Protein 1
Amino acid sequence: MVKLIEFRIHFTTQFGKAIYLTGNSDILGNWNPNKAKRMNWSEGNIWKVDILLHNFEYKYFVADYDTPSNIIWEPGPNRVMFQNQTQNLKTLDFWNYREVQLYCNNPQNHQIYITGSSFGLTQFKQFKQMNQQNDQATFQFLINPCKEREIKFQCCLNNQEDLKTNIESVSIDNQNQYQYNIIQIKCNQLDVLLRKLEEEYNRHIEEQRKIEQEKIRQEEENKRRIEQEKIRQQYNNNTKKNLKQQEQTIKQHIQPITQQTQIQKQINKQPIKQQIQTLNQEIIQIDNNKNATNNQKQFQKHQYQQQLLTKLKDSGEVKEIPHVKQNIEVSNPEVALYVLKESLLRDQNRELVQTNTQYSFGFDSIIGAYGSDQSCLKVRNTNLDYDTIVNDNQLLEQQLLEFKQKLSISLNISIDQIEILGVSKGSFEISFQITGKNSDEIQQQIKNKPEAQKFLNEYCNGQVEYVAYFDNARTAGGNQAKNSTGVALSSDDFNPQFNMSWDNLPEKEQRGPPYHRYDYYFPRGCYGLGLKVKNYGNDDWIKMDGNANEWRILYHGTKNFAINQIVKNNLVPGGGQAYAGYQCQDEFGNTVPVGNGIYFSDKLSVCQGYTSPVQAGNKKFRVYFMSRVNPKKIRQSNEMKPINYFVVNNSQDVRPYRILIQEEK
C-alpha cells in the first residue's frame, strides 16, 4: 500500500513568496529547484505538502510563488527521513531549527537529570529530568544549527551531586545522527556511570550473599555438633540388654565395614609403592574373607581397584591408548576410542588406560558392572560428619546399627535383609542393599509406608539413590576416587550391526507416532557407531514405524558429562539450567516449570557448541550422542523453541543408542 507523509513547516513569507521542498531523490527533484515541490499555505502560516514515503535527505527554501527564483535556502545541515523509522505520517519542522534527542540506556529506571549549553537545556542553569520509556531515558529540544554547531551537556543520576558525569561536547553536523528527522545523540558518559553503579551494586549483593552463606554454614555446623552430641548421649543411655543385642548384630553384619575402614587408614599412611602392593593383596584376598558377604566383597573390591588404578597412574605403571596412525576414518572404532579417550581426559580428567597383567582388573570390571551384585542403594545424612564417625569404631557401629533398625521397622522387614556395604564421605553416606527386593519393589514399598517416608525424610531428606557403584563408588577414605570410571569402555559397549551414515539422505523427514509427529533432522556429515541397548527391554521405543511407544530422536553434546556414564548409566542431569524457571506445557496440558534436566537439540549445529574437536593425525573429530527420549516427558518453553532447545527432567526418559563421530572439514 502506498504511504504518503505530510510535511509541514511553520514560516511567515512575504506576499508572492512560497516555501519549496527539495531533496536527493527523483520525487524531490534531486536538489534541482525547478523540480522542487511547492508547498501549500494554510492557516497559521503552516506550509504543507504530501510526499511519497521513502528514504531521502531534504531541505526547504523560499522563492517566488510562480517560479522558483530569488531563492533563499534554509540554513543548517540537510534534514533526513528514513522510511523504516517513521511512526507518524505527519512531520512539523521549524525554519532554521532542528530537533535533537539526547538518550541513554536505562534498564534500571534510574531518575536521570540533564542540563546543557542549549536554551532547551537551560544553558547549564538547572537540571531537567529525562523521560523514561522502554528501558531508555530521553530528552528532546530544538536548536538552531546556524548558531549552535556544538552541543555541550552534563547528566546527573538520581539528583545526587556525587553522581554527575563529565561535560560532553558533540557536533551536530553528522548526518548519520538523524533518526526520523531527529538528531540523536547518545550520552556516553552517562552509560559509563550507569555501568559503574551496576557493578558496585552487584558487588554489594555478592558480599551480602557470602555473609548469608557463612551464617548458614555456621548454623549448620552448630546443628551437626548438637546432633553428634545427641547421638553419643543416646548411645550411652541405652540399656544393657540393647547393647548386648547390638554387639551380636554388629559382629555378624558390620564387622567387615569396620575392618575395611581400619585397613583403609593403614593404607593411607604407607608409601605409594607399598600402597600398590597392599591394595593388590587386598583385592586378591578379599574373596577369602569369610566374614563378608558376596555383596560386601564386590563393593570393597571395586573400591580397592579404583584406588589401585590411581596409585598405578601416579607411579607411571599404566599405558595410554595410543594415537591412531593408520585408517584415520570416522568408521574406524579405534578412532572412536581415541576420540573418547581424549574427550574424557580433556573434559572430565578421566582416562582409558592399560596396565600389566599383575594389576589388571579383568574385562569383567567393565562387562559385569551392572550385575546383581554390582549395584546398591545409597543415602546421605548431611547432619553427620564422616571423619568424626569413622575415627570412633563405637560411634560408627552405633550409627550403622541404628540405621538398620529404624529402616527395617519402617519397612516392616527383617533387619537381616538390610546389608550394609560401606560408608563414604558426603557428608556421611551409607551404601546398602535390601536382599530379596529389586529397586522398583523397594521404591513402591517406601511409597506405600508412611513410616518409611517419615524416617527417610528425617535421615536423608527422603533421597534414596540407586547406584551402579562401578561407575560411582567413592574411596573408603572418603574422597572421590580419582578417575573412578577409568577403564570403563570397551569394544563390547558398541554394536557394529547398527553402524551407519546419513550423507545421501535429505535434510529431514517426518517421524514419530500420530500424537507426536516431528521433524527428524538427519545427522548428515557424521558416522554413527551403534551402542548396545539390550538393557532397555521392549524395542518399540527405538523402532521407526510410528508405533504409539516410539520415542523421539534428539542429540546431546558430551562436553559437560562423562562419556562412560552416558554409555553405561544413561545420561545424567546437567548443571547449566538456564530455562528451569520458564513455563511450558506437560503431557496433560498443565502449565508447569521446565525444571532441571538434560538439555537436547534436534539439530547437530546447536549441539556443536557443547563439544570440542579432538585431533587425530591430521584430522579433527567431534563426538555426540544420538538418543531416544520419551516424547511425553519433553519440556520446551516458548523461549526455547526459536533456539531448538529441549529438556528432559529424568534420565530414565533418555536412552542413548548411537555415538556420532564427525570429522571437521
Protein 2
Amino acid sequence: MKRSLFGVGVALALGVGFVVACIPHPSEDYADFLERTADYRKKPPVDDSGPVDAQAPTQAIEGIYYGSCLSALSVGDLNKVLRFYTEVRFVPGTGGGKLDIQFTPLKGVDFSSGQPLPSPPAKVAKSETHGASFGTKGADVSSTGRFEVSFANVIIDKNANPISGREISIDAVFFRGLFSAGGGSPAPEADAAAPDAAAGDAGAPADAGAPPPTDAGASAGNARFCATLQGSVTVPIKQFLDPAENFCVFVPVKEGDAPPEVKRDEYKCKL
C-alpha cells in the first residue's frame, strides 16, 4: 500500500512539474518576442533631403493654382477628386522662403437631375467656388522646397463634394508638400503651349527688396507643386486619410482657364 501511495505521489509530482513547465509566462514571452523582432521593427531612416534636384525657387511667385486631391474618399475615381481654387504667394529668403496659401473649394457636383452627379467646374475661377476658404500665411519653406501647413478643421461645402453631394468635415488636416523650382510632381507627357509671359497681375504688391512676382503659369520651372494630405474625416463618415495614400497636385492657371487634366500617375509627391 505504501509503495502504491509512493508511486502516486511521484506521478503527481511529475505531473505538477509538467503542468508548471507548460504554464505560459506572458511577460517573459513578450520580452523574448521584442528581442527577436527588434531588427524588423526598426523604423527606416527618414530622408529629410527631398528629391535630389529639389530646390526652393529663388524668385518671388504669385498666382492661382488649380488644386486637385485624389483621396481615399474618391475610391480611385478621378471624377470624384476634391478641387480647390488655390491662391499662392511665395517670397524667397534665407534657407528657403515663406509661403502664403489659401484654398477655396471648387464646384464638384451637379444637383439639377435631383441626384448628386460628379461635375467639374466649367473654369477655374472664383465664381465657381463654394463654401469658406481656409489658408495660412508665412509658412516656412525649406531650402529643398519642403513645407507643411495644418488646419484644426476644414469644411468642404456640399456643392464641392463630387462623392456624395454632402458636406465634408475633416479634423487635423495636414498638407506636407514640395514647392520647388523644378516642380514636385511629374508634368504631363505632352508639351503644353507656353503661356503668355506678359500676362498676370502686374500690379501685385511685392516685398521690398524681393524680385517682382512671376505669374505662376509663366514658367515651366514653376509648373506645379504637390502635397500629401492627412486628416480625420468626421462627416459624413468617419475615415482617416493616410498621407501615404492621399495626394494633391497643384497646377498653375490663370483666372478663367479650363480645369487642367491631372492623370492618375501624377497623383504622387516624393518628400
Protein 3
Amino acid sequence: MPTPDSPPVESELPNLTERQETILSLIVREHIQSAQPIGSKTLVEQFDLGVSSATVRNDMVMLEELGLIEAPHTSAGRIPTRQGYRYFVQRLLKIAQLSPQERRSIAEAFKQQNVDEWPRVAAMALSRTAKLAALATPPRAVENHFKHLELISTQGRLVLMVLVLQGGSVHQQLLTLADTVPQEVLSRTAQNINQAIARLTADQVRAKTRAQSDELVREIGELVADAMLQVNQQGARDVYRYGLSESLSTLSEHETQQVLRVLEEEDLLENILRDTLAYDE
C-alpha cells in the first residue's frame, strides 16, 4: 500500500482538463527557461490561451490545491512542485527524437571508453544534447556479485588482484600476502575461487571461502570480500557532473549558492540522488 511519501505512479496522478494541462506545461517550461516564478498575467500576455487572467488564476489555484504547483515565499507567481514535474514528464512531455548525427556522436563517445568511464560519458552526452546540467551515477545493484578473479605475482609477497564484478566493472588492488606465493599457485588458487564463488555477494564469498581447507583460498577470499564491500560503499558516492557552469549562469545568486552547497556536500548530494532514484522506481 502506498505511503504518503511514496512516489506517485501513473494511476495516482490527478486528472486535469486540457486547459489545466496547457497551463501546467507552460509553467514548467517557462520556469525552466527563466528560473523565476510564473504568474497568470505572464501566461495571458505571452500565450494565446483564449481566456482571461482571472480564469487562468482559477486554474492555477486548482493546480496548487492538487499539489502540482506552489508559491515560493511571498511571490505572486508559481513554480512546479516535484509532483508537477512528474505529471509533466509522464503525461505532457513530447520526447524529441535524436538526429542521426547526434546518435552517431553519442555512440562514438561510448565506443572509445571503457565500461567504468560510461557514467562520465553519459553525463557529458546528456548535458550537450539537452543543453542542461547533467548528473550521472553508475548503475548499482543493492549488492555487487562476484564474476571473475585474476591473481598476478609482482614482487615478493605483493600480488595484483584483478576483480571483475557482475555488470562488467573491473577493480584492481595490490595485495600483501602473509607469504611469498609462486605464480602457478596463485593461478590455481584463482581458478578454484572462480569455480567456488561465482555470482556470490561479499558476505557469501566470505562464508564460502572460510569453509575451504586451503589456507591461501581462505586468505584471498577474505581480501576479495573486503574489496567487494569497499566497492559497494564507494559506488554510491560516484557522481559525474557536466554542464553546471552554463546552468548556474541562469540562477540568482541565492539559488547558485544553494546549488553549490549541495554539490560540495557529498553526503547531502548522495542522499538527494538516492531519494530521487528511489522515487523513480
